[in-house]
């Protein structure tokens, strides 16, 4: 049985084992893309109201090109950045616990994996480590049994717990 669920992010509660180095950049890019789409949606009607020598067909083509370009870029940015993991925490481990006092990650270890919503807001998913599977999707490293995708920068592992988690999920790829 899967225990994957999404909850609002309320801050770092637990031991932080991974931070996505591009988290701020990913959030900024999502917000910028949504903003530019909004500006495009507001600006397109102006193409039709401003008096000029352009024909209606040319104005329609211009408005369509602007909308298609903005919608496409926002869609691509969301597709690429939707699985990007901003941080992973062990929710039931004290932040003051000494590293040697922390139990190693097992299949039953509960994880909190933070990603970004379409509008760049944080989203937290709770999942057991044993439920993470290797992903075949481009721009994604792991997936949950219900199909949620996650991308971690496994070449930038900051803690022993994260290294063990990456190795655990990669071992499932060969099984």
TrEMBL record:
<keyword id="KW-0472">Membrane</keyword>
<dbReference type="InterPro" id="IPR009724">
    <property type="entry name" value="TMEM70"/>
</dbReference>
<protein>
    <submittedName>
        <fullName>Uncharacterized protein</fullName>
    </submittedName>
</protein>
<feature type="transmembrane region" description="Helical">
    <location>
        <begin position="31"/>
        <end position="50"/>
    </location>
</feature>
<dbReference type="InterPro" id="IPR045325">
    <property type="entry name" value="TMEM70/TMEM186/TMEM223"/>
</dbReference>
<dbReference type="GO" id="GO:0033615">
    <property type="term" value="P:mitochondrial proton-transporting ATP synthase complex assembly"/>
</dbReference>
<keyword id="KW-1133">Transmembrane helix</keyword>
<keyword id="KW-0812">Transmembrane</keyword>
<feature type="transmembrane region" description="Helical">
    <location>
        <begin position="62"/>
        <end position="81"/>
    </location>
</feature>
<dbReference type="Pfam" id="PF06979">
    <property type="entry name" value="TMEM70"/>
</dbReference>
<dbReference type="GO" id="GO:0031966">
    <property type="term" value="C:mitochondrial membrane"/>
</dbReference>
């Amino acid at each position: 049985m899967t225990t994957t669920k999404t909850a609002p992010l309320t801050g770092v509660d637990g031991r932080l084992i991974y931070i996505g180095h591009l988290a701020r950049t990913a959030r900024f890019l999502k917000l910028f893309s949504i903003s530019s789409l909004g500006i495009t949606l507001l600006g397109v009607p102006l193409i039709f109201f401003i008096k000029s020598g352009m024909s209606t067909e040319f104005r329609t083509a211009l408005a369509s090109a602007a909308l298609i370009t903005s919608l496409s870029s926002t869609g691509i940015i969301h597709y690429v950045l939707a699985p990007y993991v901003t941080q992973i925490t062990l929710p039931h481990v004290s932040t003051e616990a000494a590293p040697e006092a922390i139990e190693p990650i097992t299949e039953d270890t509960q994880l909190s994996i933070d990603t970004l919503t379409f509008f760049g807001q944080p989203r937290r998913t709770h999942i057991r480590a044993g439920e993470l599977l290797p992903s075949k999707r481009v721009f994604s490293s792991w997936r949950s049994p219900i199909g949620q995708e996650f991308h971690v920068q496994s070449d930038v592992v900051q803690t022993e717990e994260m290294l063990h988690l990456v190795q655990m999920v990669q071992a499932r790829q060969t099984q």
